[in-house]
Amino acid sequence: MHAQRLQAALQTLAEAIRDVESLLGEMHADHDALAAHIFVARRAYRLVNDTKSGKRRETSARLSWERACELGFRGSVGDWARLLGAVPKR
Question: What is the pLDDT of residues 17-27, one digit of tens each?
């Protein structure tokens, strides 16, 4: 009796493991475009050679924010600037 229950539990576990592995494979196949854009935008923001007034970084942040909005970002320009590391949160 116990051996049959153990065998059934092992089969259920094996099916669950296969389901999880297939879901992980799907997740690896689909990349998050917004997350990739955030990563690239933060690096680009740090590497901008800025002027005294900060116009280049401001322009860079605004342009990358517009692209982020196209990818699904729902925050304001200020939120985006804080995400890039431009402005400390108050």
Answer: 999 999 888 87
